[in-house]
Structures are given as structure tokens and as C-alpha cells.
Fold:
Amino acid sequence: MAESLFYLLIFPGITFQLVCGWFFEWFDRKLQARFQRRVGPRWFQPLADLLKLFSKEDLLPSGANEFAAAALPLISLGAVLTAGVYVPIAGFSPASFEGDLIVIIFLLSVPTLAYYLAGIISAGIYSVLGGGRSLLQFFSYEVPLLIALSGPAVMAGTWSIREISSIQAEMGPFVLFQPIGFILAVVGLIGKLKRSPLDIPKAKSEVVAGSLTEFGGVKLAIWNTVMNIQAVVGIFLLVNLYSSWSGIVAPVLAVPVFFLESVLMIFVLSAASAVFARLRIDQLAGLGWKVLVPLALLQLLVVILMGV
Amino acid sequence: MQWLKKRMRLLLALVEALTGEAETVSYPKTELELPKGYRGAIQLDEEKCIGCGLCVMDCPAHGLELEKESKSVYKLTYYPARCAYCGQCERACHRQAITHTNQLPGSTTDPESIIVILKDQKEQEDSDE
Amino acid sequence: MDKMNIPIGPQHPLLKEPLRLNIEISGERVLGGILRLGYVHRGIEKLAQTRNYNQNVSLTERVCGICSHVHTTTFCRAVEALLGLELPERVHYIRALMCEMERIHSHLLWLGILAKHIGLEMVFMHTWHDRESILDVMEEMSGGRVAHAVNQIGGVRFDLDEDHGPMVDSTVKKLKVDYEELLDVIEHDTTLKARTQGVAPLSTDDMKRYCVVGPVARASGVDVDMRRDDPMPPYDKLDFQVITHPDGDAWSRTYVRLQEIRQSLHLCKQIIDDIPEGPISVRAPRKVPAGEVVMRSEAPRGELFYYLRSDGSDYPARLKIRTPTLPALGILPEQLSEIHIADIPVVLAGIDLCIACADR
Structure:
């Protein structure tokens, strides 16, 4: 009992996820600043921003559904935190079971749907536009992402992340066999996290802040936390699926290598958001269905043929 | 190679920025210096000023005020909060009595507190009597 | 899908200056837009009648925060034409040097804003960093970062000393390198081209119909430049090209402006090399003889037009300013139809609106 509570509340549960989320936000902002030749924020800035948002007045326009606006961020937070518990950290996974990869993928989709609903219920024009865009974007990136993520599962012959991660000790990191699948997964992750260049649903110069335009105070703080934890879970998931070294290197090195890879992933995400311009929604749909899906299918075919 | 370099220009710029120094400074900790020729607050050479009022006439922002009792008895007041730092008074003065320093008066929420009396002959006259 | 109206402005992350656009959309498509102006009307033309000519130099400087120098230059040239003053050659060169440096920093600023609107925050920061180096030179020379206060009636206020020439020279050299890098980005970056190419193109005839001036018109193939067509000295002695591009879309506007930065750098170098010795001002009388005059110059955004009427006193009887943004606003409703919502920032940024100029 005490053990499960520790897993849920401390590691790899809420506390660990929150700390990783703050670190992710700080490191991303610091990198962005350095790309732009700025000094960048100090290490406690994400925490300070969160406290500032908590102390702010919480307002919604008249006509907005108050209950839904309060419930949606909490539901999303629950979903991403639950997903976080199932992702192995350097081979350590207390709650693993067969098929948890599928559960995580669906739990990570909950914030996107909540984001869409938040746009619809918050009674603002920009929110409605942002919500519609988020759903359009969801249909563009989710299919290639799903096909790409099924690549490692098919290769390992199991849908348990821990199994996939540990089988790479024998077969070698999957990123070597599925480079295209890895790139597609990164693109899908960027789309899932609504990060630049795929920040179409919350493009500032077009729809102000998208679905979250009318949100403020505690609710916005929870939304921001959801986005951060979603990013952390997504990065850990990709590291586990594509480049797990926990069985290959010495056990002492497994943890540093895991976190180093995660930091490298943040670097890749930051660099992508600095180098590419934001796409238009029709360009993203074209890219998703005409380029990414065929490539993902091709990768899957190669994986299946390799298995045979 | 050249073609690739052209296409990857943003990535190169990114690496360059990451390896280079940051261009911004954390301001209150690092002092910023204004350039030598910066037009800051004005100062008056009391010896040269004859109280003709040309500077007051040309000031576009009513930043200078002249209270004149007689030809040689007058009071010239400078309101930094109204000043546009345009340099017109410096140019208008025929005797080169007004010059710009490269210092700015500090910011304040009370504009009355930073008024400078550039020259006050009225007070001098009073004390002489 | 149902039609919706989205308001853009007067306050919106897209706009740096207040302007109201009521845009009718259907899904992601823009059907049309209604424009409303006047949020920064300060009554400068009326105000000018209540101030004497020397005070008006500072007033016209504050029409615009970006192209402040060209406003005072045009105003001073108008007054000097009424007074019949013969200015020393050196004055013209210093004025032209500041004009060209202003054009460079205005175009760099604009390029940064376009990049920011399409999500290239890094390009935004880097162009503004380049722009900062030219602002530093202007501040060092004139004493002001934005309000340079270079001009006075009858001359300029500062003289170039021996430090300033090498400073301009080294900045021009540095900016030429930065220009090459920016050109690579504009010409080759895939996502930037995907967002700007083919967005709301306007033909040469359209541009002529709306009397649009400046880089926007030149990007549609209208060959117009006041520096060549109605040159103020010393442009008649300097060598430069008028850049045009036939396409008329947002990308060609980017391209034209970037090429103009290069021409301006070239002009700066020539001015610093050729500048003659001599006095920097002549004494101007306070009262201006009765008469009227029209003066035009090439601001960073196009032709700037000043009409000045004097009744013989030391206050102007009428001052009319027509800024290049005013005709460019006319093409806005035409551009804002049959595009995506995501193209609105590109269209607005591509025109390079200066609302403070247009409202005065």
C-alpha cells in the first residue's frame, strides 16, 4: 500500500512528473533564448510563472460553461499524470502491463480533445477557431504518429513499453532500424504538444491564444502544467520506444543515459521550433496525408518484412 | 555543398548563436552607458545667459519657462518631465548658454520633484536687499 | 459553414499599432474585411498651425516613430524652398546618410515583424539585433535613438567628426554579411517561402489604380522611386538601382525590401566616401515669405508628400502631410478576400502599415 502510494505521489508519479515538466519548460525557454542570442530566464522562472498565475483573478466571459471550464483542465491533468505513471524511467516501471502503449497513446489524446472542448465552451470567437483548428490538426498528425509508434511494437512483438524497451538490449536501439519512423514520431509529438512550427491552434498572430484565450488564473496554470507534463511523457515514451540503452550499458549508467537522451530530445524540439515557420492548416493536412502517412506505412512495411 | 549551406542557413545561425555570447545584459545589474553625443537633460551656463527668451519661444514642449521682472531680473525654470530632448533650445540660444549633457534625469512618479531652476536672479536680488 | 465575424484590433497580438479590421470568415476562409481607422489621430496638421516653424521641426519628427528623419527632412526642405535658401552641399549629404540608415533600419524592423508573424521568432530576434547596430550608429551620431533631431531649418544640427566615418564604414561592412545571410533565408527557406509565396498577389494595374507607392508598388512591378524620379540632392550624383519585382505577392515584397537594404548600404558607403567639406547650416529668418510649396521625398515606405502654405508670419498657414501608408490601406480590403485566416498576418505585415503615419 505504502509502496503504491510512493509510486503514485513521488516517483514516477505526480512530484517527479511536475519537476520534470518545470525543467522541460525552463530548458526549452533557455534554449530558445540562447538561439535568439538572449540571456534567458533563471531556473525558477516556470515556478514563479505558475505561482503568479495561481494568484491571479479567475474570470470567464458570460455564456461560458463554468463547470466544464473547471473540469476540462483537471481531466487533462489526470490523464497525463496517469500516462506518466506507466512510462518506464530507465527501465524502472512499477505499473507495466501488456498493452500499456495503447493506453498511453489514448491518454495522451485526452488533452487534445479537452482542448477542443475548452474552445467550444468558453464562448469566444478566437476560442472556437482555435478549437476547430486543434481538431483539424489532430486528424493530420495522429494517424502517422500511431502508425509510426506501432513500428517498435511490431518489431518487438509486444505492446508493453517495458518489454519493447528491454528487448532493445538484444536487438539494438530501434532508431537504427526505423529512422523514418523516429522522425515521424517526433513530428507527431510536435503536433501533439502544439509546439511551433505546428502551433497552429494557438498561433498568436492569427487566433490570439486559441482555445485558451478566455482562460486565466488557476485554470490557465493547470493547462500549462498539462502541456508540460504531456511533453515530458511524450519525450520519455519516444526515448523508451526508439533508443532504450537500459539493457545495453551498465546499470549505473542507465539513468544518466536516459536523461541525457531526454534532454537531447528537448533540444531537437526547441531547434525545430526555431528553424521552421508555422505551417498553414491546409499545408499541414497536405503534409500529414500526402507525405507522413505514406512514409509511415512504408516504414511499417519494412518492419514487417524484416520480421519475416 | 554551397547549396546545402544556403538551405541550412537558419540551422547554422542557430548553432552560431548557441556557441556565441548572449547579446542582452541583465539590466539593473549591468550598468548601461549612454553614448557620448547623447541628448540628455540640458544645463545652463549662467554666465552666458542674458534672459532673452529665445529658447522658451522655440521650445516645442513648453519645457522651459521664463518669469521676467525687468531686463536683467528673471527666473528660468526647466521641466524635465515635459522636455522632448529635441535640442531646439540648444540651437535657439545665440550665446551657446544651453548645452545637452549625456545624462537623463531619473524616472519618477512625481514630475514636480525633478523641476530644475536653471537661473534665478529674483532670489539673488531679494537676498541682496 | 456559417459565416462569422472576427474582430482584429484595435488591440490584437498581430497589430503593433491600433487599427480595426472586421473580418468576415467562413471556416478558415476569409471572405472580406472592413477597415476602420483613426485610433491614433493626434491632429498634427492643425497643431502645426499653432506653432512656429522651428517648433514644427520637432512636431513633424513625431508623426512617425520609425521614419522620423525623413519627415523632418521633407518639412525643412519645404520651408527652405519658400525661404529660397541655398544650402551647403555637406548638409544634403548628412541628410541623405541619415535617410538611408533609416531605410535600412525600417526594412530590417519590417522583416523581423514578418518573421515573427509566421512563427520564425529566431529570425525576428536576429534581424532586430542587426538593426540595433545601425541604431547605435545613428544614436552616436545624432544623439537620439528614435527622434534623431538631425534637421533644423537651414541645415543640420550635428557634424560628422573623424570617428563617425569609420563607424559607418564598419557597420556597413558588418551589415553586408548579415544581408547575405538574410538573402539565403528569404530565397531558400522552404517553410518561409511556403507561407509567403503566392499570398494575395496584386497586379501592376491594381497598384496603379490604387496609387500605391513604395516597396509594395515596386514589388508589383511599378517602377517608381522618388530618389530617382524627383531627386533631392545629392541623390542625383549617387549611383543606385530601383528594385522591382513582377509577382506582387508577399514574398516579392520581402525580396524587394531586402534588395533595397543592399542598395542603401551601397549608398551609405558612397555618401561617406564622397561627402564634401563645408559648413553644416546657414542662418534662416524666423518669418517665412507668403507662398505655397509641395515637397516629396522617398520615405522607407514610399513617397512622402508635404504641402506647405505660408502667409508671411512665423506660423505656417496650412501643412498637409500625405504619408505612403495611406494609399496602401486602400488595397487592404482587396487583399483580404479569398485567403486563409493564417494569411492575414502575412498580408498585413507585407504592406508594412504605419498607422501612426496614416492617422497623423
